[in-house]
Amino acid sequence: MNIFKLSWKYLIFKPLNTTLNILLLALGLSVITVLFLMQNQFESKMTRGAEGVDLVVGAKGSPLQLVLSSVYHIDFPTGNIPLKDARGLTRNRLVKSAIPMGMGDNYQGFRIVGTNHDYLELYNAGLSEGEYWTKPFEVVLGAEVAKKLNLSLGSEFAGSHGIATASHDHDEHDYVVVGILKESGNVLDNLVLTSLESVWFSHAEEHDHVAMGAPVVTSGLPETDEEGVEITTLLIQYRNPMAAVQLPRFINSRTSMQAASPAFELNRLFELLGVGVTLVQGLAIAIIIIAGLSIFIALYNSMKERKYDLAVMRTLGASRGQLFFHIVLEGVILTFISACVGVLLGHFFVQILVSLNEQGAIAGISAWTFIEEELYIWAYAIGVGIVASLIPAWNAYRTDIATQLTK
Amino acid sequence: MLHTKNIRFHYDTKNAFIIPDVNLARGENLLVLGHSGSGKTTFLNILGGLLEPHGGDLRLGNTELYKLKGAELDKFRGKNIGMIFQKPHILAPLTVKENLQLANYLSGAKPYDMDEILSDLNILDKKNSKISQLSEGEAQRVSIARALVNHPKLILADEPTASLDDANAERVIQLLKKQAEKLNSILIVVTHDQRVKNHFTNQMTVGKQ
């Protein structure tokens, strides 16, 4: 027998009360856990995704949408830009490199992106098997795509029009899988990558079978002068810091295209999300405070019933300090368990969120990585336990044995 | 073993209690009689180290009880004084065994054989029972076992029979006397219960001035 066991016995003596308090506090703490996990992983994932991309150029529209669609592949593209204009821009002296992308098709909900090999280099992607595409209609799959759709080298499939599933198929020509990427933890995992030419050919009215057999351009933009040929976006790297000032202004005012900076748009996005995060955080803190209050009330009320018990403990040799410790420990054990339950619950919530949103913004967030900030959850919880039990513990400390026993 | 001298106590100055000196050797017992409000329980609380008197000396063995302060007094009380109340006041969240273990733990006394005490009190089979499963008589015997588990030098019983029927009251008094004798402890019983009177030869009465 010791004080810890004594406190524990008193807790389980009222199982309903104890469970309710644990659940209430755990709920508040789980929301905090979810926020920690999301913020930690979402922000780093987003920031990592935009590394190496200084500027996104696409059709006019919402700059945030442009960044989300072409860097993270979560929103719809704003439209297309003429290849001619894009080529003109790549010759600008402020542009170090430009990666073209053509979007608009999907296979089973996974986006088909027409680009060149520079895009793979941008993310330092490596192949787990096969090779990169060299001809039209050859595709390289992200690791997640291959796994989910059970595709392997040599598999053939037809893309569908549109960014999401369930629209008409391009059944004239099938794609062939020639390579599968290693798992990278970034957007590539969920993409079907191919050449720009493949995307164009699958949308062309007439099929030029000679061109369809020719090798595709693996770096830079394809040299075609055909009118009406379009791409969706260009991912641009600046040549020098000067470009950050001049280039966006030039593109936005002098061309029919739009330039958006991922860093800037991300900040804007985080700011927008920040309002929501603050709201949810406030809610979580309110729940935690109510839970603390509920623990306080439960302990405080139980002191009235337990005054006699406490007096008896004193006659058995317990010191005032021991009784004080006994009550505080009761609060702390309760909140410590709440923290354990809350953190587990939080990870579980993230797991559910991620599994409901497999191709969305939070895909690739791992629900079961534990981060350092979670230690704060235990610290908060134990803090709540101590604060909630201080007054009841003080009452226990002050209990006058003689008066109590004579009552 | 137990010596008190000139102990004075009052809740208000006009009504001071008359507390006779007590000198008891090991193994002796004493019945303290008095009407309700006569200060019997106050006297017992003073003897038990729960209530500091306004004057006088109280020595148990070689220890001046009220020279001890704070936790020291608590530990000394836990080890050397066993208290039994009118109601059992056993801690309900704990089992019978755990109640006894707690008494042992809180006082820091060395653990004695609790099975022997439990079997002497005829409640060994209740060792792992919950408190809610005990009858009133059994509960009172558990509280006696808890008071005796540290082999105290002094056993104080405050109206131990008041809420028991004749048979149980008789039994509890016999048990208390027998156990006190076995442990060679001083037994002081405070009561206004006439059924108890005949069991004690050494009696005293307290009252007010």
Task: Walk me through this protein's architecture.
The complex is a heterodimer of chains A (407) and B (209). Chain A has twelve helices and 13 strands. The mean pLDDT of chain A is 88. In chain A, strands 1, 3, 4, 5, 6, 7, 8, 9, 10, 12 and 13 form an eleven-stranded mixed beta sheet that branches. With 407 residues, chain A is of the alpha+beta class. Chain A has two domains: 3-46 and 281-406, no CATH class; 55-260, no CATH class. By secondary structure, chain B is α/β, with parallel strands linked by helices. The longest helix of chain B is centred in the C-terminal third of the chain and has 18 residues, at 166-183. The radius of gyration of chain B is 17 Å and the shape is globular. The model of chain B has no long low-confidence stretch (mean pLDDT 88). At the A-B interface, helix 1, helix 9, helix 10 and helix 12 of A face helix 1, helix 2 and helix 3 of B. Chain B: Residues 2-208 form the ABC transporter domain. Chain B: This is ATP-binding cassette domain-containing protein.
